[in-house]
Amino acid sequence: xxxxxxNLFMNILKFGLVAVGVIACILVITGPNMxxxxxxxxxxxxxxxxxxxxxxxxxxxIASVAVVLFFFVVQLITNTKRTVMSIIGIxxxxxxxxIFWAMGTSDTNESLNLLEDVQVEQGTIATxxxxxxxxxxxxxxxxxxxxxxxxxxxxxx
Length: 157
Hints:
By secondary structure, the protein is mainly α. The chain contains five helices and no strands. The chain has two domains: about 1-80, no CATH class; about 80-155.
């Protein structure tokens, strides 16, 4: 396929997907809020606009995961060493997350000052905290590599 035609097709696909997503968001945003009657809320939950938004979101997530896995397999075939290093990095992040999750957290609904109608389970707080800690460790390691890599390059010379 010609590069110009491929770029045109990808732009049309991109704008089409964004347009459908924006329309689905507008349908959800303009739906009934919590001050509406229970019948209106139930009708909205069972209606086409919320169904479109949910199904479209699921389609985008599943398609994204499929594309990522496809490119991951292609990368594994074409560039094995770097891909194995990436797998090791993902496994290290998973182990780090599981360690933080097993450690738990001292946060509670009260310490987070959550409202009465927004109470969550302790497991939700623990998994969210573990995810935040894992992301912060990854950010710290990335910043450390960014700052130290010029020094390491100078030390090798």
